[in-house]
């Protein structure tokens, strides 16, 4: 196997671009994570290592590998994959549960954590509304702790969400701190969580029912992932 050591190499540039853009191709790091992705049916383009390894298809020099590794302590294997494409139908056809929508949640760590929560509490999938961080960025993938492999993630516009909810007869509710407290729906619903700074956007509030979480009042608001954990757990236990 030829050892690649130049930053001008096409494979190095391809992995670097996938780390930055992740629109068509994405990167997963670590031998177990790469193996799990392949087992889940994700389509590998290349498996890259820094050392001789029978599982890798391309070998980078250690310097080159370190330049594309996105973790502090590299595990020596990086997988380049086709980006999975889920559909809204995959989410809305699951009528026994609820779906999650994220509205302008810009921290990829929070997005990945909520994907993990969606798996933990058997949500049908995660909808990314405008201005959201990408669930397939390296940080979001790591934060999902493998849940990204089993949770459908679909980008949608506000109007697409509204029309899909009407078509499939899903209720849409939104976590909104100033709203009256209500229990989240247990099934056939979408729960929208807004951005860390400004909450749910005005565009969403035109077609949703706001709900809130009762707290002591000693804090102004909850982190979006904390709010998602509470409402998804309450919805799950009510099914």
Provide a descriptive summary of the structure in words.
The protein contains 9 helices and 11 strands. With 239 residues, it is an alpha/beta fold. The chain has 2 domains: 10-82, 2-Layer Sandwich (60s Ribosomal Protein L30, Chain: A), CATH 3.30.1330.30; 88-238, SPOUT methyltransferase, trefoil knot domain (Alpha/beta knot). The protein has a 6-stranded parallel beta sheet with strand order 8-7-6-10-9-11, sandwiched between helices. The protein has a 5-stranded mixed beta sheet with strand order 1-4-3-5-2, with helices on both faces.
Q: Measured on Cα atoms, how large is the radius of gyration?
A: 20 Å
**What is the class of the largest domain in the CATH system?**
Alpha Beta
Question: β content, as a range?
Answer: 15-25%
Compute the average pLDDT: 92
Total helices: the number is 9
* SSE sequence, one letter per element: EHEHEEHEHEHEHEHEEHEH
Largest sheet: 6 strands, parallel
What is the distance, rounded to the nearest whole angstrom, between the alpha carbons of the first and last residues?
54 Å
According to CATH, what is the topology of the largest domain? Alpha/beta knot
CATH architecture of the largest domain: 3-Layer(aba) Sandwich
Q: What count of structural domains? A: 2
Helix content: 25-40%
Secondary-structure class = alpha/beta
Number of strands: 11
